[in-house]
Amino acid sequence: MAEVLIGVNTEFVRHADKPFEWAVEKAAELGYEYIEPWVHWGRELMSEAGYYMTVSMLDDPYRIKRACEKAGIKLSGLSSHTALCRPDVSGNYLKQAIRFAAECGAPVVNTDEGPKPPWTTEAEDHVLMKYVLTEAAAVAEPRGVKIGLEPHQQYSKTPDGLDKICKLVDSPAIGVNFDTGNSYLSGEDPVVWLKRVKDKLVHVHAKDISIQQSQDERGKVTGTPAGCACGDGVIDWESVIEACKDVPRDIVLSVECGTIEQAERSIEHLKQFV
């Protein structure tokens, strides 16, 4: 039986105007054992000034490692989403994220296919994704890093669509970062879908969806940036966690919510099932 652990995506301080190191300390203070940082390419004004929590992959990866060691918290993965359908955007970006993850100690890099180019066909998009993932897997395999493909966009919004992307490249580095909220909003049953991908599961975005958002958006969107506090919405967390226990490897539930207060409520709710 797999062990289910609780972490948090740094999105929980996105509106707090605080830097990455502050987010790590706050996550540890709330009782989280794992954290999932956001990384980006190049330089970004607000994070450079200390008002935003993302980390540039031009920085030393040990910046992340040192901050986590100081706070006594571990890395579940890196949020490194990039448009797999656009090799001009995602090719070098994803490979750099993998190398960055290996050096800072993150076992997973999470991504999805991203918004597609407006002029490509579905068949062409899958060829483009295969190109990017083949190149990325070749970098990930020798480093022991997993690529977590998330249900989030136009092709991965259904179980069959996500399976098709996962099968584009035959590599042990290719896995699934399952998102409970995105899968629910797309119109699927998250627990049924989670059980379907259990053999490929490497990471989980623990995202709850409020009743109001469910009423407004379910079946109309493919995902959402952040959810409400776990336990405040429609997701059956006890069933999600039971499904995760039947996975071949230990799994971190990385809470995706929009505020510090929601992160605090989320961990209290999830702990009763773990």
What is the fold's blueprint, element by element?
Blueprint: E1 4-9, H1 20-29, E2 34-36, E3 39-40, H2 45-48, E4 55-56, H3 62-71, E5 74-75, E6 78-83, H4 87-104, E7 108-112, H5 122-140, E8 146-149, H6 159-166, E9 174-179, H7 180-185, H8 190-196, E10 201-206, H9 211-217, H10 237-244, E11 251-255, H11 260-271
Parallel strand pairs: 1-2, 1-11, 2-5, 3-4, 6-7, 7-8, 8-9, 9-10, 10-11
Structural class, from secondary structure content? alpha/beta
The largest beta-sheet arranges its strands as 5-2-1-11-10-9-8-7-6
Order of helices and strands: EHEEHEHEEHEHEHEHHEHHEH
CATH superfamily: Divalent-metal-dependent TIM barrel enzymes
Termini gap:
13 Å
pLDDT < 50 runs, ≥5 residues: none
Mean pLDDT, nearest integer? Answer: 97
For this structure, the CATH topology is: TIM Barrel
Q: Provide the CATH architecture.
A: Alpha-Beta Barrel
CATH C-level label: Alpha Beta
Number of domains: 1
Work out the strand percent.
15-25%
The backbone outline, from C-alpha atoms, is globular
